[in-house]
Structure formats: C-alpha cells, structure tokens
Design brief:
The structure holds two protein chains of two kinds. By secondary structure, chain A is α/β, with parallel strands linked by helices. Chain A contains 16 helices and 13 strands. Chain A has helices spanning about 10-20, 45-60, 75-85, 90, 105-120, 135-140, 160-170, 195-205, 225, 230-235, 270-285, 290-300, 305-335, 345, 360-370, 390-400; strands spanning about 30, 95-100, 125-130, 145-150, 150-155, 160, 175-180, 210-215, 240-245, 260-265, 350-355, 370, 375-380. The chains are: A alpha/beta, B alpha/beta.
Chain lengths: ~400, ~425
C-alpha cells in the first residue's frame, strides 16, 4: 500500500549527531545538538531534579491518573508567573493563563493551532535564521504562509536591525511574528532593550501578533528576570500575545517534555472561551500531557527553597557557558585568527553563530572531527576545558586555509 | 467624561455596570479574541463534576474510564512499582529521546502486540514509533494516512465509537464515515449489519477496528466473526487500522486480546496499529503508546519510518520517556513481565467478577429483563441498554453517575457497592 512513500530527507541536527556518534576519532567534539554538557562533557541531571524524583517516588499519595487536558495546574500557573513576573498587571487582572504542553515544541504547536484554527491567522514570520522546526510547526498547524524577517547580518556578525524593522513594517496586518524571548537560536544575538521598544512600537502600529518563543529563561544570563525582560516589556505595554515556554534546558528535563503555553489577553472574559477551545485542540491531538516532568517542575516552582536551589543550578550552567565563550574568544584572538571574534562573547545562550562559512564547516567536520551545523552554529555546551584548545586551534586552521 | 457624569444624573445604579460594560466593550473590541465562543462541555467531565458536587454518601461514579480497585481507589500495578525501582537504580539521564522513541520500547511494544517471535518484526516489516499514549498514536497514524494513503481519505468507524475518534480523525484531515456495529435490540454485535455495511465501503478505503474491549459498548466480535470480517475486508481491498487500547485488560490474556490483529496479519492484510499502555499498565498520565505500520518490505518500512518522524517533529519533537521506560523495563525483564501478566489478569478478573455480580444481583432483585449482555460484554465499559430518561432517574434518585448513552464504567463497581447499583438499576428499569 505504501510502496510509493519516499524516504524523507534526514533532519540535519540528528544526522549530524549520528555521524558524531559513529566517528571513532578520539578527539572528536560534538558542537551540534542543543543540550547542556558539564565540563566533563557529560549530560547533567540537576540535583534538585534527582531530589524531586526521589521525593515523588516515596510519596504514597501520588498516582498515575490522567492530568487535566490543559495540564497540571500548579505547573501552568507557576510557569506563567515565572515568565511574566508576579508584578505583571495581566497576571493580577486575571488576563493571563498557562496551559501545560509538550515542552517548547508542543507549546508552539498548540499556540499555532489555536492562532490558525480559532484566530484565523494565516501568515507567520520568523527570523532569518531561526530554529529549523519553526516553519514546520506553523505550516503543519494550519498557517498557509511562512515568511522570514531579516535578522543576522553576516558581514557585521550582529543583528540586522534595520532589515528586521523594514521587514516587519512590510508585514501584512494580522501576521503572527515569532520572537525569540532571549538567547536567539541559532545566532545567540538578541536585540537591545531599546531595539525591543522599537519592535514593540512597530508591532503595535502594524497590528501584528507577537508569539514569543522562550526556551532559555534563566539559562541565557543565569537570571530568570533578566531573560524575561522582553516578554515582560510587551506585557507591560498591554499586548495580547502568546509565549511558548520550554523547561528542557533550564531544568535539564529534555526527555520529559515539560512546557507551558502562556496566553495573555486584553480582557479576562476571553480566557475561559480560549481555554475551552484549546481543550478541544489538545484532546484531538494527544488528550492530556505527561505527568512526571510536570510534577517535578510544578513542585519546584511552587516551593521557595527548591526554587532557590534550582536557580543556583541555572547559574552554574549559564556561568560555565559564559566562561567557554570568553575562553574561545581569548584563544582565537591570541592565535590572531583572521576576522573579529567579539561576537562570541557578545552573543548569549547555548549557541553561537561563528560566522564560519560552509567550506570551513565541512573541513572542521571532515578533517578535524569537530561537528557543527552547516550554517556555522556551534553549541557552546560542547566546549569544555578539555577540548577548547583543540577547537580553537582547528578553527584557526580552517579559517586561515579556506577561501569561502 | 461627560457621558459618565450624565449617567450619574440619570441612573446612578446602572453607572457601575455601564462603566464596566464600557471598559469591557472597549477592551473586548481591541481584543483579538472577542469572537471566541465557549467550546461544548465535555460530556464525561460533566459527569465527574456533577458527581463531585453530590453529597450522597452512596454516590457512584461510573463515568470516567480509569481502573479502580475493590476499594474504589486508583491502582498502581506492582509491576510498575518494581520497574520504577529498577529504573531509579540505573540513574538514567534526561537526554532527548529519538523522535520515534527508544528502539527498545518500540520493539517490545510491537512484539507485545504481534507475539514475541512474530515473523513481521523478525523480517523488519514494521515501522513503529512511540506516541503520546493511544490518542497520540492515533493522531500520528491518521496524519500519516491523510498524507500518504493511496486510496480514499475517509476513515470508516463503527457505530458507536470512542468519542474522540471522530474529532481526532477530522483534525488530521480525514473524512469520517460509519459502519453498523452495536445492536441496541440485543445489546450485542450487529454482525450482519456490520458485514453488509463493510461490503458497501468503496474499495481502497480505510476501516477502523477496535481490537478488543470495544469502547464504549464492550461488545466484541467472536473469533469466527472476526474471520468473516477479515475475509470481506480483504475482498473489498480495505485498509485495516486497529485501535488496541486494552490488550490484556479485556480477557486477562494478552494473546487472546491481540488475536484479531494477529489473525488479520496472517490473512495477509497490511495493517496500521495504535497501542496504549494507559489501562493495561495503569500508566494513564505518563502517556505511553505506539503507532505501527506493517509494511510489505524492509525498504517500505524504512521509508515509512522516516515520514512518521517528519510528522512527529513539528508536533512535539520527541516523546516523553518516563512511561515508555517503565513499559520497556516491564516487558524486557522476565520477572517483571510475569508480575505484570499477573497484575493485568488481576484487573481483568476483578472487572469480570463485577460483571457477574451485577448480573446476579439484578436477578436477585427480581428483574425480569435479560441482562446477559452485562457478562457477554468485555472490558472497562458496559452498554447497559438504559434509555436517557432511565439514566437521568438513576442519577437523580440514586446518585449513580454515568453517561447519557447508558454506558457504565465497570471499573467503578466494587463488591461493596454492586448490590446498591443492582437495586438502583432495577428500580429505574422495572
């Protein structure tokens, strides 16, 4: 019956990871998949998570019953509060609500389906470049047109702010605009606060709909409030908006799929109807979300002591990444590698857009067994004190011997 | 400002309402969402809400389909507890699962359905992916069929079927059509009606089949009836999509419950299959399930697999591990597996004995109605045959909560309340 089904092209980041795993070179380095690694190059299950799992396992009052369709309420409300801040007017006025989703992707998908099916939006914009899955999520959710707004200035290795503003100015009314709340994936370049203000002005003027993607709150700067500045600014301006939140990175709960969709309305009376419509969408997709990860995050976020512990873990992760950024930049500048390298420390979060071209990337993989994405994105977490010299040396080698 | 002061003069009592109304109107007018209507209330949830509000100490909730022990409490399977302890010892990481779930989980799951030594997985003919329990697996399957099924895009479903089948299939882009299934006159299987309708389905269409413990009726075809259906479905070149949410939970025997699926494969059908561990492992909220396609070649299976991943990635990227890890541990650890088989038989046996007790108590009450269907039917649910007015009376007068269609969740019956239930049912049906 399915003889005509063609094999789909492999997804780049997974194909890259596969190649890395199969490589037998002892000094190989994986700068591909976006997951945190310790300085020993190992995955890190946060101590507060381990502690919670032991606590949950010992709790005889818990069971495996279905969660409500819209998820574990303590998680959803705490996640929305973590995002908007307890001073948020929309939160205080009952105009903001949270819905547990299947990590960031799941939250994007539920939000996108709601906007397409109920909101009747059909056009969505994301940055160029952006996370590879954005377009697929929105087009599969029912959007009919996916477009880009300029973002990365390859020559300056910085934000193409004028290009961004021009493209948003030309976006048709009602277009949904995906905004990375912080730690832009894949570039690591975020707008300044002043630039965010101008973006907000434009979105308001052009009647566009802001959809924030917040996958790194806390993980970027080490400070939850600082990383939420852009979302909170839009909230304080009275925007209606949605925000997809992921706890994959900041809680290290990648495979438990814990996420939240925050929905902010101008009027509290729309909250119940919106929730009831989203209930129908979720029911037709997966009925209700998974329990385990939700209990971990929901419990921690509602417990001040555990929250403090968690915050210290986030700071540990963010600080290590920042030190790797400093270390890489220092070494490249010391080696006098051609080009400028300040973008490595100007950028923030897990990823860095190195500015390396496709030929340099190919060489890094083929000749030096250093795995990174075609567009030159590296995962800073893949760097550690054990391999940073090797990586700097190899980057120097490919930059000096490659003519792009 | 002047409008408000004039209101103050003319109707002070309406000022507040009007002022609120004005601000509501203006913020609603600026809102993207003022046109959003309340969705229809969930019928089953409504039953539970009403049950919670009821203060009658004898109240019974026969609505929601989750297993309860003889004390009416949720049941965590011993095998599950043991599996969790084993998993905790391993200190596993939280790294992303593959998009399709762990290969170990997928293999164990399809082998559970088809038999440990089955020729299909041995020959690599299955494309199996983890899904978000049964619903998520159905969703992946319907999305795949919507994009790739080479025949008609209508999915034929039994009447009645699980309430969520219809919106789910439509959401995936499929049309929904029906074939006769339940005979309200006998509270049994309308075998002839089903065959007639199936024979009328256009060639190269898709047909949805409940592998065992039909939801919501509890009415399953007999093995010889399955054989007939398999023949007709093959003759009409229809594509069978099995929904198996109760393997082991129905009869207590995992092979018996999976027999229709295995029969169809032996008969030469290529099938789609959705599996759930919500009920048979009590893993409800952990969302463990799988979707499989049995293909005609390894190459086909590989191509299909790659397309399934393309469907999953924009939904939620990769699946949650906890439930899947528990299921894998149970199925691949011999002592846990035999413990699980005991646990699931225990659940099935309790349900079967509640059916027997209900039927015998109805006879004791002096009911002259034929209640054979209570024990003829199988699984979590029983279509009692009660009419909506009778259901209403049952709820109003006896605080017994069930859905309007007369469906009861047998799992909500215990040895302590079965007499009361029989008495109540007799009162409203005599």
């Amino acid at each position: 019956k399915f003889a005509s089904v063609e094999s789909a092209p492999p997804i780049e980041v997974f194909a890259l990871n596969k190649a890395y795993v199969e490589d037998t070179f002892p000094q190989k380095v994986n700068l591909g998949v976006g997951a945190y690694r310790t300085d020993e190059g190992k995955p890190w299950v946060l101590p507060v998570v381990r502690h919670m799992e032991q606590k949950l396992a010992a709790d005889e009052t818990l069971n495996k019953e279905y969660l409500p369709v819209l998820g574990y309420e303590p998680l959803a409300s705490a996640a929305t509060r973590m995002l908007l801040g307890s001073d948020s007017a929309s939160l205080k006025e009952g105009r903001a609500t949270g819905i547990q989703c299947l990590s960031g992707t799941g939250a994007l998908r539920v939000g996108a389906e709601f906007l397409a099916h109920i909101g009747k939006h059909s056009i969505v914009y994301s940055s160029n470049p952006t996370w590879g899955n954005h377009s697929l999520v929105f087009l599969n959710a029912g959007f009919t047109s996916y477009r880009s707004y300029r973002y990365w200035d390859a020559a300056k290795k910085a934000l193409d702010f004028d290009g961004l503003m021009e493209d948003l100015r030309n976006a048709p009314e009602n277009s949904v605009i995906i905004l990375h709340a912080c730690a832009h994936n894949p570039t690591g370049v975020d707008p300044t606060q002043d630039q965010w203000r101008q973006i907000a002005d434009l979105i308001e003027e052009r009647q566009l709909f802001p959809f924030f993607d917040s996958a790194y709150q806390g993980f970027a700067s080490g400070d939850l409030d600082r990383d939420a500045w852009a979302v909170r600014y839009f909230d304080s301006r009275g925007f209606e908006m949605v925000c997809a939140q992921s706890f994959a990175k900041n809680f290290g709960l990648y495979n438990e799929r814990v996420g939240n969709l925050t929905f902010v309305a101008k009027d509290r009376s729309v909250i119940e109807p919106v929730r009831s419509q989203i209930t129908l969408l979720v029911r037709a997709n997966y009925s209700n979300p998974p329990n385990h990860g939700a209990r971990i995050v929901g419990t921690v976020l509602n417990d001040p002591v555990l929250t403090e512990q968690w915050k210290s873990h986030i700071k540990t992760m963010a600080d290590r990444i920042i030190s790797m950024r400093l270390g890489l930049r220092e070494r490249l500048e010391k080696l006098e590698t051609p080009g400028t390298w300040n973008h490595i420390t100007d950028q923030i979060g897990m990823f860095s857009f190195t500015g390396l071209g496709p030929l340099a990337v190919d060489k890094l993989i083929a000749d030096h067994h250093i795995y990174l994405l075609k567009g030159g994105r590296i995962n800073m977490c893949g760097l550690n004190t054990g391999n940073i010299d090797y990586v700097a040396k190899c980057i120097h080698e490919v930059v000096t011997t490659t003519q792009e | 400002m002047s409008l408000i002061s004039s209101l103050k003069i003319f109707s002070p009592s309406s000022l507040n309402t009007t002022q609120n109304a004005l601000s509501v109107v203006s913020s609603r007018a600026n809102s993207w969402w003022s046109h959003v209507e309340m969705g229809p209330p969930d019928p089953i949830l409504g039953v539970t809400e009403a049950f919670k509000r009821d203060t009658n100490p004898k109240k019974m909730n026969l609505g929601v389909g989750a297993y309860r022990d003889d004390n009416g409490k949720p049941f965590i399977l011993p095998a599950v507890k043991m599996a969790e302890a084993e998993i905790a010892k391993k200190n596993m990481d939280k790294e992303y699962s593959p998009i399709s779930g762990s290969p170990e989980f997928c293999k164990a799951t399809i082998n559970l359905a088809l038999g440990e030594d089955n020729e299909w997985t041995k020959n690599g003919l299955n494309a199996t992916v983890q899904g978000i329990s049964g619903t998520g697996s159905l969703r992946i399957g319907t999305a795949f069929l919507s994009a790739f099924f080479p025949g008609g895009k209508d999915l034929y479903m039994p009447t009645p079927t699980w309430g969520n089948h219809v919106p789910l299939a439509k959401h995936a882009g499929l049309g929904v059509k029906q074939y006769r299934y339940y005979d309200p006159k006998t509270c049994g299987f309308d075998f002839h009606g089903a065959l007639q309708d199936i024979a009328k389905i256009p060639e190269r269409s898709m047909i949805l089949l409940h592998a065992c413990a039909h939801n919501p009726t509890g009415v399953d075809p007999k093995p010889e009836q399955w054989a007939e259906m398999s023949k007709v479905i093959k003759e009409k070149k229809l594509f069978p999509f099995f929904d198996m949410a109760y393997q082991g939970f129905a009869s207590g025997d995992i092979d018996k419950d999976a027999a229709p699926v295995r029969m169809f494969l032996k008969d030469g059908h290529q099938i789609a299959l959705s599996q759930s561990y919500a009920k048979n492992m009590g893993l409800y909220g952990e969302r463990a399930g799988a979707f499989s396609l049995i293909c005609s070649s390894k190459e086909e299976a590989a191509a299909t697999m790659s397309q399934l991943k393309i469907i999953i990635r924009p939904m939620y990227s990769n699946p949650p591990v906890t439930g899947a890890r528990i299921a894998t541990e149970i199925l691949t650890n011999p002592s846990l597996r035999s413990q699980w088989l005991k646990d699931v038989k225990g659940m099935a046996d309790r349900i079967i004995s509640m059916r027997q007790l209900l039927r015998s108590n109805l006879a004791k009450e002096g009911s002259s109605r034929d209640w054979a269907h209570i024990t003829d039917q199988i699984g979590m649910f029983c279509f009692t045959g009660m009419t909506p007015p009778q259901v209403e009376k049952l709820t109003k007068d006896f605080s017994v909560y069930l859905t309007k269609d007369g469906r009861i969740s047998v799992a909500g019956i215990t040895s302590k309340n079965v007499e009361y239930l029989a008495h109540a049912i007799h009162q409203v049906t005599k």
